[in-house]
Every structure is written in structure tokens, then in C-alpha cells.
Here is the input.
Amino acid sequence: MAEVRSVEIVEVGPRDGLQNEPRQLSTAAKAVYVERAFAAGATRVEITSFVHPRAVPAMADAERVAAAVHGGPGRVRSALVVNGRGLDRALAAGVDELNAVLVASETFSQRNQRMSVDQTLAEIGAMAAGAAAAGVPLGVTVACAFGCPFEGPVAEERVLDLAERAAAHGVGEVSLADTIGVGTPDRVERLVAGVAERLPGVRRRAHFHNTRNTGYANAVAAVAAGIDALDAATGGIGGCPFAPAATGNIATEDLAYLLHGMGVSTGLDLPALVDNAVWLQGELGGGPVPGQLSRAGLWP
Here is the structure.
């Protein structure tokens, strides 16, 4: 690492983590989850998604979760939206930030949100206008940026082109998501650098799954390439309901331990993160979570 720097870790477990868990938490437990993340130093938490409950039953209580968690300085409550209806619901619920999804492959786009890539781009344009009118920031995640479960590898040029087209709608942040965990550090570095070159002034974020044990190596590569923010989920839980064999996110506590050891500041409290992972494991039924730090312990 060339210099000591800081990277924001966005806690996405209450949304991307819980959406694929067989055991659904109560609204009250979800609110506790979010509060514990903020108490551990997170400044941005993806608290829910405003999608149709038939598509993602675990997110059926989106409005209730938003009402149960208050915002304020250093407490950005983020939510995922995929269409205008979701945008309207999220704005009415008073969330602080929105994140839209643009899938890089046609097949997964149809399965994930029942729209083509071009239709999604048009929808993002309309949502960006609505969010701007309401004074709520909107970011875009390019999903399957490293590969699609149905179409295979996705060309880097296509990913960068989609990021550029999405940013043209005025979004302030672009995230590159390894939805199925097939990315490698060399490609991460090229894509993160490519976004910086094409979209100066737009914040860069990355979202890695550890499906093939490359998630943490990819996170380090993203940091080396100058990423602004990384997504992670307490305990490494999660996955995508629309991707075969999808597994969890990189674990918040494991990622923070790794970055702190490299001299990269995250603002997170490691003992509190470990406690959160242990708490969440109990809430989900007591089976071991994928993250390692809550089992191995802090060192030294």
C-alpha cells in the first residue's frame, strides 16, 4: 500500500445479507441489527430494499424497518430500489440515500428485475430525476460486473460503458458488484481505474462476494486502485435469490481486521464488529456464520 488512507465500509447485511437467509428476522430484530452497525462505527447502512414482497419476501417490511431506525449526522440509511414504484415508497419512507441496480448481462437483468439493460437505464434516468427533485442522493450498482451465472464472463468495456451511461443521469456514486464471486484482483484494479478515468468526480464503490474465496483479495485490490467505499455484511451472510449457488458477502469484521492491519482506517470498532457477528449468529439460529474473525478472535 503506497500510503495510509481511509476507506468507508458500507454495512449491507440488513438488505443484501438477510434477503437470502432461510430464517427471516423480525422487524424489531432488523432495527437492532442496523443500530448495532451504527454503534460499531458504520456511517452508512443499507437497511432494506423497496421491492415487491413476492420477489424478495424477507424485505416485505421495508417501510416498518425505515420507520424503526432514525437518521441523523453520521447515520445514512440507504435503501435499494429497482423501479419507480420502489422509489416512491422509499422517498415516502424518508430514507437518506437510494441505490439502483443495473445488471451488466441481459439474461440476469431479466431474471433479477424483469427488464432489459436498456429498459433499466431508462428507469434509472427517471428515478435519478425523481430522487434529485426530492433532494435524496442516488447511486447505481453495476451488478454482474465480473461475470454472469447464465452468460459467463462480461467484457470490461461493457461494464465501463454501462457505468458511464448510468452516471450520465447525474448519479453521484457508481459501484462495481461481483454478484456471483468470480472476480480476480487484476480485473478489479482495471475496472476501478477505468471508472476513475471515465468518471472523474464520481465516487467509486465495490461490492464483493466471497463465493470462490477471492472476495478479500479483490477488496485489497480495490483499495490499492483507490476505491472510496466497500460493501460488507456482518458475519459474511447473504447472497442473491436470483443467482444459482450464490453465497455470502465479505464479512464486515474480517474486512475491517484486514484493512486495519494494512494501516487503512475504516472508523469501525473491531471488538464491536465481532460482538455483532456473534449476536447475528444467534438471531439466525445459532449455526456458524461464514466470517472467520468471530470464531478465531482478535489478534494480538
Observations:
- The chain has one domain: 8-296.
- Residues 8-296 form a domain with the TIM Barrel fold (CATH 3.20.20.70).
- The mean pLDDT is 95.
